[in-house]
Amino acid sequence: MTVRTPDPDDLPDDPLVSDEAESNPAWLSEIELAEARRRLPFLYVEGVPVRTDGVGQVTEVGLLLRASPMGEMSRTIVSGRVRYGETVRDALFRHIENDLGPMAFPVIPPSPVPFTVAEYFPLPGLSAYHDERQHAVSLAFAVPVTGTCEPRQDALEVTWMPPEEAASDALAAEMEGGRGALVRTALAHLGALR
To answer: Which of helix, strand or coil describes residue 157?
Structure first.
């Protein structure tokens, strides 16, 4: 299964040249992107949205529901590429806003530190994470959100659930590319698993 890491600017009208590629020489056309994916690892950020109580304990985890172009449903987390010249913090904020909406109000520190680095490979079995399109390195963050989440882009909904449910085997089976393991690692890092 392909790991979906959508970015609204990745969807050009002309499949060969995107508006972003024309207006920003640091951005890649679809052809250039496909060629680069065959030769280079890409840098991504991933965010596990969480809600916390007054003392900082995780009370809920937000997971996105997405449909593939073939109609397959899967659960996932906030994810996307880091643009050339973009800070990791800005990339994380942009993808949270793209996926959860502008009123999510993420709490991202000035200098965010990932809870782990996930490495996605096109061949399964090299790591816990798989993306058949590419080799990607992802900085993964747990991100408290305090506002209202209205999914955007290709997310159908965001479902908030207790940490125990988010870390369950049943939910991990619904997640793409090994992201169930990533959610469990985030919850363990936050001390939310009992």
So the answer is: strand
